[in-house]
Design goal:
The complex is a heterodimer of chains A (273) and B (388). Helix content of chain A is 29%, strand content 14%. With 273 residues, chain A is α+β, with helices and mostly antiparallel strands. Chain A has two domains: 32 residues, no CATH class; 222 residues, Alpha-Beta Plaits (2-Layer Sandwich), CATH 3.30.70.20. In chain A, helix 1 crosses helix 2 and helix 5 packs across helix 10. By secondary structure, chain B is mainly alpha-helical. Helices cover 73% and strands 0% of the residues of chain B. In chain B, helix 1 runs antiparallel to helix 14. The chains are: A alpha+beta (273), B mainly alpha (388).
């Protein structure tokens, strides 16, 4: 159904009665249809970025087998002052970490699965979902999805209700159960490791931010940059809206999977197996 | 009317004093939590809500349960409940206060609490929960207080009070429906994402709330000159029976869907709760204790002779209270986090300080309840509603 002249006039008349005007009225009474009636079947290419990540697990695992590579995680946690609590899983903080294949993709596991993935450490991070349940449930708009697809976190507004942690189906969020500055000194001798990035207070939730502080100055996320610097190129970052981007080409040419797609959150972290 | 709370027997002061003592210990524990953070609790990255939110959830039910005396009186003109609506309303006030306190102690950054109002987020169910809970609190304070004041003066309460009493009835349903939506709208937590959640919450609320009220009525009759009345207790017993049957039926519906469909995600939390998963079974004894008390409650309530006998009816109410408390105040919230999103089992054990803070909030609720009941019953004694 599209908006023809007759219907447009009807809506315009009706909306005048309610004191609404123009495009607003069409958006309310027939959302999306004005755009659709322009006759374009494919989404119009815009300048709007849609950031996403592709993780080439083949390359990543090859590198991990060579010598326990943990460069991306170390770089991220260093740059963002994420404290290390060692074996204390109760207070664990993590933005990017390893999780075995069967734990990351519980419903896709089977007992005869290829040795290439079985019990192999995959990389996990916030999926920066297009339809993020964490943002929906937040009672203070402390976490929200930006137009460019980054799921943001306002550490100064968060009240620490942890509804987002219950809502995230990916276990991507960590909570500051105590003061991160009081993390064990022997594990965090140089904390804070980056004086240019804020440390957090106790009682707020945090997670991977796709390095929005770096995106803002034209840099790519630090995990991706680190992976490139060591010449592995297992992490690839780019714009999903740009058909010429490297990630679009990779997704087009190779088979990829995402976590728990059946929940409809539309994760933007893709795994190449 | 308030001055009636200031005159009382030694027993009254003793009760208030001991509740105050528990509250004080709780405040001391809370100050340490305020300073050190929630790490003093047993919660973790994986079990990010624990006893606090579980108690909150259970007590919203107790608050909503009060409507089971208000509804028959105002909607069905069931006059007998006129004697005890005030007890139901005051119980609701105490329960909502406990709910708000449990939310408060669970918040990681309580000084920022007002952000919920400064940045209102209608897409968040927690926002609506704040509105309905506070609204219900004020409705009960206004209606309860005005009805009681009218009773003291021997006049009929005003029309607008009656209007608010009518408003409070659907409002009571809303508080527990919205609380159920906190859980039932979350993808990926399979124990919670069930369309029957609000119905389960309401049925357990209408069993547990009136059960507590019935026990309080018996206590009031024993300790004061005010008799809530035989017929009133019997009718309450009937309401509790129906609600408890529904509650157990709804739980079994969940079990059927999970196990007949054979979908592993839908089974795993239930398996963890009732049989243990991957060698972890900390909650199993609790859940079977709950089942035991639910069965005992059903036996005592369903058999007419036992339900009409006040001793066995009281025992049945105790069984309902314990059975539903474990099911909802422990199993439902904690079980929802197990297994975690990586299908790993990480268990939860509340710390001593966490338990003390919980007990102190319960004590605060009973402190408020004692004072409110003291006022209400003093007035009932004065105007001579002492015999049936």
């Amino acid at each position: 159904m599209t908006v023809d002249r007759r219907k447009f006039l009807k809506i315009a008349g009706l909306s005048a009665a309610f004191g609404l005007g123009g495009k607003t009225a069409v958006d309310i009474f027939a959302p999306g249809e004005l755009f659709a009636s322009a006759g374009s079947a494919v989404p119009v290419a815009t300048n709007q970025k849609k950031w996403a990540m592709v993780i080439d697990m083949k390359k990543c695992l090859e590198e991990q087998e060579k010598g326990k590579c943990n460069q991306c995680m170390a770089a991220c946690h260093r740059v963002h002052n994420v404290p290390n609590f060692g074996d204390n899983i109760k207070e664990e903080m993590k933005w990017i970490w390893q999780e075995s294949y069967e734990h990351l993709f519980p419903s896709q596991h089977n007992e005869f699965i290829s040795e290439d993935v079985k019990e192999k450490p995959f990389i996990a991070l916030c999926n920066h979902c297009e339809n993020p349940p964490c943002c929906r449930v937040c009672p203070t708009k402390s976490t929200w999805r930006r137009e460019d697809g980054v799921v943001m976190m306002d550490l100064h507004r968060c009240i620490g209700c942890r509804f987002c942690m219950a809502a995230c189906p990916f276990g991507s969020r960590s909570f500051n159960w105590g003061d991160p500055r009081k993390a064990p000194k022997e594990l965090n001798p140089d904390f804070p490791t980056n004086m240019n990035y804020p440390t957090r207070t106790k009682g707020v939730v945090e997670k991977c931010n796709f390095c929005d502080e770096r995106l803002g100055v034209g840099k790519i996320p630090v995990c991706v940059e680190t992976c490139q610097n060591i010449n592995v190129h297992a992490l690839i970052f780019g714009d999903l809206n740009d058909p010429a981007s490297e990630i679009r080409k990779l997704l087009h040419s190779r088979y990829s999977i995402r976590r728990k797609t059946e929940l409809g959150t539309e994760p933007k972290v893709y795994y190449l197996i | 009317m308030l001055e009636r709370a200031l005159k009382g027997s030694p027993g009254y002061w003793w009760l208030l004093g001991s509740l105050l003592a528990v509250m004080t210990v709780g405040v001391v524990c809370y100050i340490t939590q305020f300073n050190e953070g929630l790490k003093i609790t047993g919660m973790s990255r994986d079990i990010s809500w624990g006893l606090y939110i579980a108690q909150f959830t259970y007590l919203v039910g107790i608050a909503a349960g009060g409507v089971m005396v208000v509804l028959p009186y105002y909607i069905h003109d069931y006059k007998a409940f006129g004697r005890i609506t005030i007890l139901g309303e005051f119980l609701a006030i105490a329960a909502v206060i406990m709910c708000l306190l449990f939310i408060f102690v669970d918040i990681g950054n309580p000084v920022r609490m007002l952000n919920v109002i400064l940045y209102p987020s209608p897409r968040s169910i927690l926002f609506w929960d704040m509105i309905v809970l506070n609204g219900y609190l004020f409705l009960n304070i206004i209606v309860g207080w005005n009805v009681l004041a009218a009773e003291r003066k021997g006049v009929q309460y005003k029309k607008w009070v009656k209007f608010l009493a009518y408003v409070s009835i659907p409002w009571a349903f809303s508080i527990h429906t919205v609380t159920a939506f906190l859980y039932a709208g979350i993808p990926g937590r399979h124990l919670w994402i069930t369309a029957i959640m609000a119905a389960r919450f309401l049925s357990s609320a209408f069993a547990a709330g009136p059960s507590l009220l019935l026990l309080l009525c018996l206590l009031v009759r024993k300790l004061t000159k005010f008799d809530p009345g035989k017929e009133q207790l019997r009718t309450l017993g009937g309401i509790i029976t129906y609600a408890m049957i529904l509650n157990c039926f709804f739980l079994l519906l969940e079990v059927f869907t999970a196990f007949y469909s054979g979908i592993p995600e839908h089974q795993s939390s239930l398996v963890y709760l009732y049989a243990g998963l991957d060698g972890h079974s900390r909650l199993v004894p609790w859940m079977w204790t709950s089942v035991f008390f639910c069965v005992v409650a059903l036996v005592l309530l369903v058999i007419p002779a036992l339900r009409r006998n006040e001793t066995t009816l009281a025992l049945g109410c105790v069984a309902v209270f314990i059975g539903t408390w474990i099911d909802k105040g422990v199993g439902l919230v904690i079980g929802g986090f197990i297994p975690n999103p990586f299908h790993k089992v990480i268990e939860y054990m509340p710390t001593a300080r966490e338990i003390i803070i919980c007990l102190a909030i319960w004590a605060t609720g009973f402190f408020v309840l004692t004072i409110l009941y003291k006022i209400a019953i003093s007035i009932k004694e004065e105007v001579g509603v002492t015999n049936h």
